[in-house]
């Protein structure tokens, strides 16, 4: 079997190839338990205004053990380059790290990324020292432009955010991995619904997956977190083990010689 | 606190809304005034992002625009 390499995003290294989100959990405690079970080492979260009239709402950060996780602030909710750059800088002022998950989205129906804005924001933030992890479409041309703009990883979707459809198509994710997999980590972000979806991404040679809704909204998020962890591990092992070629016709598993007649 | 108590009030925009706050506050004081947990918040003062340790060194003045943000669950 090929030996596994350490996953590296910018200057940060990870043993776990399951990145996780923190949204949509019924409670922070449930999120904490699920994240622990997932063994994820990179968790993402959003930046929002404090509710001045109710400033003592529970803080997400109280439930994230900084010794276990690297924290990945995201620009979810930002519709323009300026908004995303502003939010990334606000998050950096809190002193987490140089990592940022970049989202520039202005189509509420599909939540597809504005790839033009995403490329531009990647350029601005990378030049300012951020390790930018842009959420993008499964488009190799866009992936190339993001890498040229300085992205530290490329995060193509499998299907729309929160949809749980898994991969709609494999053509372009395969191409992205083939062309750019050795240059920056390819992280499949969005649309994965079940562990087999995560395993498929890893079997194809994705470096990691990022999962939020499929864990948070499962009937039992802690159990699903474990299932996703195992799916990612199985898929990675299969990738390293090397799958057989697909053939159109059968090939007997038992010897054809010496059959008793 | 009100003007009758002797403290002059100023108007500032906080998280998009006009608010009256006592004059003479620093940003750190403002967080206390609104009872915001300082460790969990980041402030942008007139579009300048403050490091948390800078909050006590920046004065709040009439007409300032202040964003107080926190971190929430998201994917």
Report on this model:
The complex is a heterodimer of chains A (261) and B (75). Chain A is of the alpha/beta class and 261 residues long. Chain A has a single domain (7-241), classed as Alpha-Beta Barrel (TIM Barrel). Helix content of chain A is 35%, strand content 16%. Chain A is built from 8 helices and 10 strands. In chain A, the strands form 3 sheets. Chain A has a 5-stranded parallel beta sheet. In chain A, strands 6-7-8 form a 3-stranded parallel beta sheet. A two-stranded antiparallel sheet of chain A has the order 1-2. Chain A is globular, with a radius of gyration of 20 Å. The mean pLDDT of chain A is 95. Chain B is mostly beta strands. Chain B has one helix at residues 27-33, and strands spanning 9-14, 17-22, 42-45, 48-50, 65-73. Chain B has a single domain (3-69), classed as Beta-grasp domain (Ubiquitin-like (UB roll), Roll), CATH 3.10.20. Classes of the chains: A alpha/beta (261), B mainly beta (75). The A-B interface holds A 21-25, 28, 31, 44-50, 52, 55-56, 59-62, 73-74, 76, 86, 89-91, 93-95, 161-162, 210, 212-213, 216 and B 14-17, 19, 34-37, 40-42, 44, 49-52, 67-75.
């Amino acid at each position: 079997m090929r030996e596994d390499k350490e996953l590296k995003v910018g200057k940060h290294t990870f043993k776990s190839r399951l990145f996780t989100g923190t949204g949509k959990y019924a409670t922070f405690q449930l999120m904490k338990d699920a994240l622990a079970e997932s063994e994820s080492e990179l968790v993402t979260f959003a930046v929002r205004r404090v509710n001045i009239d109710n400033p003592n709402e529970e803080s997400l950060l109280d439930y994230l053990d900084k010794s276990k996780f690297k924290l990945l602030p995201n620009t979810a909710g930002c519709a323009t380059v300026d908004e995303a750059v502003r939010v990334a800088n606000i998050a950096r002022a809190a002193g987490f790290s140089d990592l940022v998950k970049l989202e520039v989205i202005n189509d509420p129906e599909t939540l597809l990324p504005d790839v033009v804005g995403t490329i531009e924001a990647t350029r601005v933030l990378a030049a300012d020292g951020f390790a930018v992890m842009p959420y993008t479409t499964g488009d190799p041309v866009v992936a190339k432009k993001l890498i040229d703009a300085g992205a530290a990883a490329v995060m193509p979707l499998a299907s729309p955010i929160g949809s749980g459809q898994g991969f709609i198509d494999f053509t372009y994710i395969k191409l992205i991995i083939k062309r750019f997999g050795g240059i920056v980590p390819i992280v499949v972000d969005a649309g994965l619904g079940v562990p087999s979806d995560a395993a498929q991404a890893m079997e194809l040679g994705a470096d990691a997956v990022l999962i939020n809704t499929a864990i948070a909204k499962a009937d039992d998020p802690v159990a699903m977190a474990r299932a996703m962890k195992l799916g990612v591990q199985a898929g990675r092992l299969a990738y390293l083990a090397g799958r057989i070629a697909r053939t159109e016709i059968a090939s007997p598993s038992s010897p054809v010689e010496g059959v008793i007649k | 606190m009100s003007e009758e108590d002797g403290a002059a009030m100023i108007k500032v925009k906080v998280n998009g809304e006009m608010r009256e706050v006592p004059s003479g506050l620093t940003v750190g004081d403002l967080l206390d005034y609104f009872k915001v947990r300082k460790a969990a918040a980041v402030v942008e003062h007139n579009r300048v992002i403050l490091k948390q340790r800078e909050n006590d060194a920046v004065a709040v003045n009439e007409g300032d625009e202040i964003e107080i943000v926190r971190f929430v669950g998201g994917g």
